Sequence to fold (270 residues):
Amino acid sequence: MAVNNIKPLVSIIIPIYNSSKYIEKLLDSISKQTYKSLEVLLIDDGSKDDSLLLAKEYCSKFRNFKVFTQKHQGVSKARNFGISKANGTWLSFIDSDDELSPLFYERMVNGLKKTNIDMVVCKYTRKKEKLKCSNTFSIIDATEYFQNMMDSKLPKFEGYLWNKLFKKSIVKNNAVAFNEKVLVWEDMLFVEQYLLYSSKVLFLNDILYYYRQNQSSITNNKENIELDGSRVIVCNEIQKISSIFSKLYWQTFRIKIRNIKNIYKKKFKK
Fold:
């Protein structure tokens, strides 16, 4: 992937922890992206396997790949560090055991050309052979997106990070960050905090992300008492955000009603 010195549009932040089984497949899929204005920030979180060695190999091959190391402090710490190092206008958070369609960033960046888009979302699959493009999209208000996230019957509104692009200026200007005190649902909490400062969300109906279920993931350990504590913390934070969104919703609703009334008043006067 030949890359010049132009500032990258998208910074890809990838926390790595004992990911040697799949990390090469992910990095191969990134190196084959048709869209080239990318920087890849690999944050090794104290891996005990060959993950760091493999990451360094890719950095030696591709100038836009960079690797950083930290003691094992968790995925949220790694992502926050990645944000601090990002040079791109947009942020992408990818899991180290997944893979991308070669068109992932080309299609996502094309979506940014729509007016006032603050977040781009694509579909994902658990079967690699189902990756495909559809050329259809929809745009909704960030407030509506948040409300739909609370409905388990609407899976396309899930709070995953990896099928989205986030505007770095919104993250930086509003101190949106990953909660380093929680072990689960930190991604959902980040998305919901981000939506507070967003206007429009664009949905691509393209299936561009291959999500590989990791059975050794901490989130699959349902017996962990610490996880329950983290869930309580996140639920409390979401409740606060929900209260703010509720006020924003009714403010927006009243403005829309006022505008409609003004339109009909003008028509009536005529």
